[in-house]
Write a structure and sequence with these properties.
The chain is α/β, with parallel strands linked by helices. The protein has 11 helices and 7 strands. Helix 1 crosses helix 5 and helix 10 packs across helix 11 (232-250).
């Protein structure tokens, strides 16, 4: 069967096709060629335009979001998290080594909130503007999932009063201030108190944020460091799919 548009495929086929395309880390035309070779196995082939449209298919994105939630519920989360943001280039020639400041509009920003115990991505945020906006969107996702945040360690970039205000008094925040501590306000009192009581434990928990950097490194090594899609909603769909695939690769099955 030749399926020219996503509507010609079932929801299950569309979902699996998008996951397959992201695991290949190839262009849409390359995915079309591979599916042509594998038509006897899959039972259908599609055009490269169909592969592109799948990244913004609302039904597929809902399935992937529900799959993420079901995976977290099945694996369980500890309540202790670490978070960090990163930028994905829109072209092969631009990357952190050639453009460490990520200047201009050539990057798309992603924030991951990662469970310390399992290494699973619990919250995903995307923004074409800044990592801070991606962070806030990730926290909205976590809140929508109903996942309590007992503790969180964040990079110094997130060491501001506006970030602290996102978390309630019941959340232990491990972060260093971006500026002189005397200028950041009384919201830092609980953070400073925790650091003074046990500095070694505070720093040990703070540096667990490196787990977030390891997650981004794993995603880039498996699925590439730049995003090929051109529309914003499709870029977001591609990057969310990569985060979900990271979780699927991270899960360890126990003995039967």
């Amino acid at each position: 069967m030749h399926a020219g548009r996503p509507s010609a495929l079932s929801l299950e086929q569309r979902t699996m096709l998008l996951l397959f395309a992201r695991m290949m880390n190839k262009s849409n035309r390359d995915v079309e060629d591979v599916l042509g070779l594998l038509e006897p196995l899959f039972g259908f082939t599609v055009s490269y335009k169909t592969v592109e449209r799948l990244h913004s298919d609302p039904e597929v994105r809902l399935v992937l979001r529900n799959l993420l939630l079901l995976l977290l519920e099945d694996e369980g989360v500890s309540g202790d998290f670490t978070g960090d943001g990163s930028g994905y280039s829109l072209t092969v020639s631009r990357h952190y080594r050639s453009d460490p400041r990520r200047s201009g509009g050539g990057y798309r920003h992603v924030f991951h909130l990662v469970d310390v115990a399992t290494g699973l991505v619990v919250g995903f945020g995307y923004s074409s503007g800044s990592e801070m906006e991606a962070f806030r969107r990730a926290m909205v996702m976590v809140e929508g999932f109903g996942i309590p945040v007992d503790s969180v360690s964040l990079d110094r970039y997130y060491g501001s009063r506006s970030v602290l205000s996102v978390f309630g008094a019941e959340t232990a925040v491990y972060v260093l201030p971006r500026r002189n501590l005397s200028r950041v306000g009384f919201g830092w009192a609980r953070v400073v108190e925790r650091a003074l009581v046990d500095p070694a434990a505070f720093l040990g928990r703070y540096f667990e944020r490196c787990l977030s950097e390891a997650v981004f490194s794993a995603c880039r090594r498996r699925f590439g460091w730049f995003v090929r899609q051109r529309r914003g909603d499709r870029q977001e769909g591609a990057l969310f799919t990569i985060s979900l695939l990271h979780n699927l690769f991270t899960v360890r099955l126990g003995p039967l």
